[in-house]
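2024-03-11 09:14:02 INFO worker-7 job=invfold-0412 stage=load source=structure_tokens
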């Protein structure tokens, strides 16, 4: 990596993302979670939501979200039940165990992400890259 100083910014960003994602995936697995499961639990921290709404918010197909929720349900992290008002709708809620798993994942975040000199500037730069693209898909 001696020549990393010469890499274009895109390659640096891509490589950094893969390194962090691999470490993050390993730590989540130790907690029994996947990245997709963590996203679902994060979305559920605001309260119960429809399965379709969760898929839309996570920007995944409904079938993908259903598989993620099945796994979280087997682990006791979420409950799913038919909406009493609209039987076509499945409502999902985080359990105490799911909320605890989400909190544990957030607690290890500092261990996974390497320290940087100015984390707020890095975060702002990443937001400049991400926000315009996220806004166009909402």
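2024-03-11 09:14:09 INFO worker-7 stage=emit residues=138
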């Amino acid at each position: 990596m001696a020549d990393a100083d010469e890499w274009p910014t895109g390659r640096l960003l891509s490589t950094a993302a893969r390194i962090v994602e691999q470490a993050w995936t390993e730590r989540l697995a130790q907690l029994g979670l996947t990245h997709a499961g963590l996203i679902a639990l994060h979305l559920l921290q605001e309260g119960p939501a429809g399965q379709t709404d969760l898929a839309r918010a996570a920007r995944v197909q409904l079938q993908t979200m259903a598989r993620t929720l099945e796994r979280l349900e087997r682990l006791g992290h979420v409950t799913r039940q038919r909406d009493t008002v609209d039987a076509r709708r499945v409502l999902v809620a985080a359990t105490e165990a799911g909320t605890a798993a989400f909190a544990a994942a957030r607690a290890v975040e500092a261990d996974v992400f390497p320290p940087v000199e100015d984390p707020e500037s890095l975060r702002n730069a990443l937001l400049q890259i991400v926000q315009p693209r996220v806004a166009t898909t909402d």
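2024-03-11 09:14:09 INFO worker-7 stage=report msg="The chain has seven helices and three strands."
2024-03-11 09:14:10 INFO worker-7 job finished
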